[in-house]
Design a protein that fits this description.
The chain is globular, with a radius of gyration of 15 Å. The strands form five sheets. The protein has a six-stranded antiparallel beta sheet. The chain has one domain. It has two helices and 15 strands. By secondary structure, it is an alpha+beta fold. The model has no long low-confidence stretch (mean pLDDT 97).
Amino acid sequence: MIEGFGEWGASDPFALEDWELQMNRILGLTRLGKIVIAQSYTDGSVADRMFLLASYLLVKGPRSFINLDLDLDPEWWPEYEIPIGSYVGGVPADVSALYDGAAGVYRRNYTNGQVLVNPGTTTRTVSLGGTYYRADPVGGGFVPSTGDTSGWRVDYPAVTSLTLGPGRGAIVLNSRP
């Protein structure tokens, strides 16, 4: 288990070099076929959750899992169900292989979309080269005692570009679910 995945604490991301180091260590485990659980303690904000989930999807392998945690009570996040598909191209040896120098972000392709992460300190605007559908979670958090999460969902507005601030990530799909 990788406790403290992606950030020092809720909405306190690592410096770029520390983020790259952690991602490379995880890729090393992933390439060895190890089970990886990315455990992070989020503040529950959509921006924080999407940065962590997108970072996880950059380094995901066949035995990788993520847990975005608030506290001891059961939680669920609608973004766990984003139908992005399977990663394309295998597991890279180093996170630098996922760096898109022209855009200044890290990017990984999936069969139904892509993930983009800006772990740096400068806001980046990325042209997607076509129309995609950005995953925007609504709701999530502690599961109510009734178990009713019917209001929790993911919206998918059409986008042709993304602006990612420092410590931000996004998931875009090829088609709207």
